[in-house]
């Protein structure tokens, strides 16, 4: 097996295209050095694999790897998160705290969405990249750290520089080695492979047979624009797996899941990760459907087991809700999951529509956070929303995290 094939297997990277291989090869070649790497590419192309590969194949692999989503940290706290603070540095700083650059001494920091860094933080970052020096917020003591930085962005940094939003000197310092991750359009041969992988993952997770594509659907999938790249493809594969009863998908069925494209123009795709509330709500509905399906399968299995155990196959089990996990209980009353929300919105006795949706969102977010031990990044990915949207929702819905 080639080294690239080993990397793909180890990290679960799917694809055989030359452009992907080339990008991975650069990552492998640069890994043993301490050079700063800038990973660029459209949203959803899989940039996050690259810093992980670089760290794993470097001499720093036994030291810390810290991934920071610069867009998810509020502007007011980002300096303190990255560089630490002294006790009393600001209101609420009851204790001194190490920042990620101190924590990751000897290791690697991945700065995702680096274009989102505010100007003062850009200056601090430039300093640590040039000299290894940093100062905790509220301190005057210069400290040293030895951290390798890999940064990523889906923004056009040249544009950001032209608009005065990003420092040019920082751009050059960051992009010592640039890695460009190809869009899905540039590697159509990988599309069916990726679809198959995501459909198989859903099948395992929700205990159902995997969906497959007929030739027409396969062609349609390969010629689609995929504005949201692999994230969008994954999303579509999951939606189809959850919603469609038939396991062989035709082009006609598939087209329902692919937002219309105007000739030649990249259009806003409906199932891409989006930050507007409408899409978030729809994604949450899909998620509810998934959970219900899994719950119903559990329910069926438990009923069969109960009947077998009691030996009274004729007698229906009257109320087994108490035996079910809470997720299953909530989906037990509406046995037909899909129309439940639509119907309940029409019934005047039910809580008002907005409240029902907010409750549902709340529950989904809490579940996702729980499933991911409070890790927002993973929870956000599971909920098909950006970390920033999740952060906003947590605040809006008053969800307490611990
Ligand atoms: N080659 C691949 N094989 C399997 N899964 C992939 C591959 N590339 C990306 N993915 C999956 O697609 C999703 C999006 O990838 P990722 O978060 O790395 O995108 P990104 O380029 O960092 O996007 P953004 O710029 O929006 O943060 C993730 O769930 C990731 O696991």
From TrEMBL:
<dbReference type="InterPro" id="IPR025943">
    <property type="entry name" value="Sigma_54_int_dom_ATP-bd_2"/>
</dbReference>
<dbReference type="Pfam" id="PF25601">
    <property type="entry name" value="AAA_lid_14"/>
</dbReference>
<dbReference type="InterPro" id="IPR002197">
    <property type="entry name" value="HTH_Fis"/>
</dbReference>
<dbReference type="GO" id="GO:0043565">
    <property type="term" value="F:sequence-specific DNA binding"/>
</dbReference>
<dbReference type="GO" id="GO:0005524">
    <property type="term" value="F:ATP binding"/>
</dbReference>
<dbReference type="InterPro" id="IPR027417">
    <property type="entry name" value="P-loop_NTPase"/>
</dbReference>
<keyword id="KW-0805">Transcription regulation</keyword>
<keyword id="KW-0067">ATP-binding</keyword>
<dbReference type="InterPro" id="IPR025662">
    <property type="entry name" value="Sigma_54_int_dom_ATP-bd_1"/>
</dbReference>
<feature type="domain" description="Sigma-54 factor interaction">
    <location>
        <begin position="13"/>
        <end position="242"/>
    </location>
</feature>
<feature type="region of interest" description="Disordered">
    <location>
        <begin position="328"/>
        <end position="359"/>
    </location>
</feature>
<dbReference type="InterPro" id="IPR003593">
    <property type="entry name" value="AAA+_ATPase"/>
</dbReference>
<keyword id="KW-0804">Transcription</keyword>
<protein>
    <submittedName>
        <fullName>Sigma-54-dependent Fis family transcriptional regulator</fullName>
    </submittedName>
</protein>
<dbReference type="GO" id="GO:0006355">
    <property type="term" value="P:regulation of DNA-templated transcription"/>
</dbReference>
<dbReference type="InterPro" id="IPR009057">
    <property type="entry name" value="Homeodomain-like_sf"/>
</dbReference>
<dbReference type="Pfam" id="PF00158">
    <property type="entry name" value="Sigma54_activat"/>
</dbReference>
<keyword id="KW-0547">Nucleotide-binding</keyword>
<dbReference type="InterPro" id="IPR058031">
    <property type="entry name" value="AAA_lid_NorR"/>
</dbReference>
<dbReference type="Pfam" id="PF02954">
    <property type="entry name" value="HTH_8"/>
</dbReference>
<dbReference type="InterPro" id="IPR002078">
    <property type="entry name" value="Sigma_54_int"/>
</dbReference>
<feature type="compositionally biased region" description="Basic and acidic residues">
    <location>
        <begin position="350"/>
        <end position="359"/>
    </location>
</feature>
């Amino acid at each position: 097996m080639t080294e690239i094939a080993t990397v793909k297997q180890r990290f679960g990277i799917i694809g055989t295209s030359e452009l992907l291989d080339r990008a991975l090869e650069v990552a492998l070649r640069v890994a043993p050095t301490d050079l700063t790497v800038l990973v660029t590419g459209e949203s959803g192309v899989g940039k996050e694999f690259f810093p992980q590969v670089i760290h794993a194949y470097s001499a720093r692999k036994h030291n810390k790897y810290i991934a920071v989503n610069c867009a998810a940290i509020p502007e007011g706290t980002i300096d303190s998160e990255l560089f630490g603070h002294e006790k009393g540095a600001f209101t609420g700083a009851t204790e001194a705290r190490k920042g990620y650059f101190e924590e990751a001494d000897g290791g690697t920091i991945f700065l995702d969405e680096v274009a989102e860094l505010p100007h003062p933080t850009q200056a601090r970052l430039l300093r640590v990249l040039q000299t290894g020096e940093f100062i905790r917020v509220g301190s005057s003591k210069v400290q040293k750290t030895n951290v390798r930085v890999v940064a990523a962005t889906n923004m056009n940094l040249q544009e950001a520089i032209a608009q005065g939003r990003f420092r040019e000197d920082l751009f050059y310092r960051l992009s010592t080695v640039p890695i460009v991750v190809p869009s899905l359009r540039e590697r159509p041969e990988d599309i069916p492979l990726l679809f198959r992988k995501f459909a198989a993952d859903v099948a395992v997770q929700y205990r159902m047979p995997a969906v497959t594509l007929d030739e027409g659907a396969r062609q349609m999938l390969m010629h689609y624009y995929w504005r949201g790249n692999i994230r969008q493809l994954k999303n579509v594969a999951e939606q189809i797996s959850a919603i469609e009863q038939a396991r062989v998908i035709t082009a006609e069925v598939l087209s329902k899941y692919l937002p219309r494209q105007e000739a030649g123009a990249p259009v806003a795709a409906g199932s891409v990760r989006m930050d507007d509330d409408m899409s978030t709500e729809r994604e949450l509905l899909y998620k509810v459907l998934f959970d219900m399906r899994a719950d119903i399968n559990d329910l069926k299995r438990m009923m069969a087991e109960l009947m077998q155990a009691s030996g009274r196959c004729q007698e229906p089990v009257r109320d087994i809700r108490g035996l079910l996990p809470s997720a299953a209980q909530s989906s037990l009353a509406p046995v037909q999951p899909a129309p439940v929300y639509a119907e309940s919105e029409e019934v005047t006795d039910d809580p008002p529509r907005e409240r029902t949706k907010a409750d549902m969102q709340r529950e989904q977010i809490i579940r996702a956070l729980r499933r991911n031990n409070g890790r927002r990044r993973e929870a956000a990915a599971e909920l098909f929303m950006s970390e920033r949207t999740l952060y906003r929702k947590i605040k809006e819905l008053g969800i307490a995290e611990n």
